[in-house]
Amino acid sequence: MSNEEHEPSRTKVPMPVATLSDPHLGDAAKHPSRAEAIIALILVVAIVLMAGFGAAYTQNWDPWIIGGTLGAGMFLLGFGLTAWGKYLMPQGPFVEERHLLASTPEERDSMAAALVERSTVVVKRRKLLGGLFAVGSGIFGIVALFPLLRSLGPLPGTSLDVTDWRKGTLLVDSNGRTVDKGTLVVGGIMTVYPHGLQNNTVGQSVDQTVLIRVQDSDLVTAEGRETWAPAGYVAYSKVCTHLGCPVGLYEQQLELLVCPCHQSMFNVRNGAVPQFGPAPRPLPQLPLYFDSNGTLRAQAGYDQAVGPGFYERTTTKENGT
Ligand code: FES
Questions:
Q1: Pocket test for ligand 1, best of 208, 237, 240, 256 (most atoms within 8 A of CB)
Q2: Band of residue 123 on the pLDDT scale cut at 50, 70, 90
Q3: Which listed site, 136, 238, 248, 303, has its alpha carbon 20 to 30 Å from 160?
Q4: How many CB atoms lie within 10 A of CB 281?
Q5: Does pLDDT of 4 surpass 60?
Q6: Are residues 191 and 147 in the same domain?
Q7: 261 versus 25: which is more confidently predicted?
Q8: Domain range holding 103?
Q9: Cβ–Cβ < 8 Å for 50, 140
Q10: 138 lies in a domain?
Q11: What average pLDDT does the segment 53-68 reach?
Q12: 145 shares a domain with 25
């Protein structure tokens, strides 16, 4: 018994040959030439804006020009592409006669050939728009590389690991006044800087340090820090270990330093270990001593990088011990 005897009879539906005059492949727009001209104009403007963005970025023009040219260029590029699809692509309606779901090999071959033929016809018809879109996309791809080339800058090296605090550095306030035992009462707080680097453009933002007088006798905040907080004066980096905000609020009753950005709280008695909030590490502590004149100085710089974590960070000690 041959296979043909088992096959149900089927209606052969011939696939129509694709031609430019096929109404199914017609443009949606009533005036395709006009639509093509308008879309071409939009793509040309997009190209100009993209080129303008490249120039604005390299020349460091105003941010609103950089953002405006990039935004408008991308918008018009997308708008032109969308309009092309909406008004100049075949809109159908496409009707397929019902027949048995399984296709014969001939029908499959016929379908594959028709698809190839149609796509060739449709794409060939809009060479101008295809070219303009390719140029616009190409320019966008090139200018997208500009930030990579211009903004990476030199490597930071070890600059993120160090501050200006050194052995013997005097602690001063923003007016350059030094600190002695009577400067703060218990519960008092102030911001201090390395002497000579306060209130000018030479000092770094990572130098800012909060000085708190927690008690009137020596304070030990962690093992190995027995001499770091003489007469109850304890100093911590003011740069939050979460995202770098200045940790400038002090809750005196609870003895907590509070970061105003995301409410991380650091306990000043136990080495500023975070007690609440997203900060992942304690604030680094600056070791202090009173010199022979009774003036407060740093025993050394911070023993670890201050501020948020960064990829090359090598000091990861949780308690600085
Ligand atoms: S920056 Fe301090 S908690 Fe987020």
A1: 240
A2: low
A3: 248
A4: 24
A5: no
A6: no
A7: 261
A8: 10-151
A9: yes
A10: yes
A11: 91
A12: yes
Question: In angstroms, what is the span from residue 212 Cα to ligand 1's centroid?
Answer: 20
Segments in the chain forming alpha helices (H)? 3-6, 32-59, 63-87, 105-125, 127-143, 146-151
> Token pair for residue 73?
């260029």
Measure 276 CA to ligand 1 centroid, in angstroms. 11
Q: Which residues are near ligand 1 (CB < 6 Å)?
A: 240, 242-243, 245, 259, 261-262, 264, 277-279
239 C-alpha to center of ligand 1: Å?
A: 9
- Please tell me the distance from the alpha carbon of residue 304 to that of residue 318, in angstroms, as a whole number: 10
**Minimum mean pLDDT among 45-49, 119-123, 262-266, 274-278: which range?**
119-123
Would 248 be classed as within a structural domain? Answer: yes
CATH code, 253: 2.102.10.10
Residues 177 and 274 in one domain: yes
Kindly state whether residues 224 and 109 are assigned to the same domain: no
Domain boundary among 116, 151, 186: 151
Percent of the chain with pLDDT over 70: 86
Per-residue model confidence as pLDDT tens digits over 171-207: 999 999 999 999 999 999 999 999 999 887 777 889 9
137/192 same-domain check: no
Ligand 1 atom 4, closest CA: 262
* Domain-located, residue 82: yes
Claim to verify: residue 199 and residue 98 sit in the same structural domain: no
Instruction: State whether 117 and 193 are in the same domain.
Output: no
Please tell me the total count of domains within the chain: 2
User: Is residue 198 domain-shared with residue 137, that is, in the same domain?
Assistant: no
Residue where the block lists tokens 């035992």: 181
Distance, first Cα to last Cα, the chain: 90
**315 pLDDT above the threshold of 70:** no
Q: Is residue 162 part of a domain?
A: no
pLDDT of residue 227 exceeding 90, the answer is yes
Query: Ligand 1 atom closest to Cα of 240?
Result: 2
DSSP 37: H
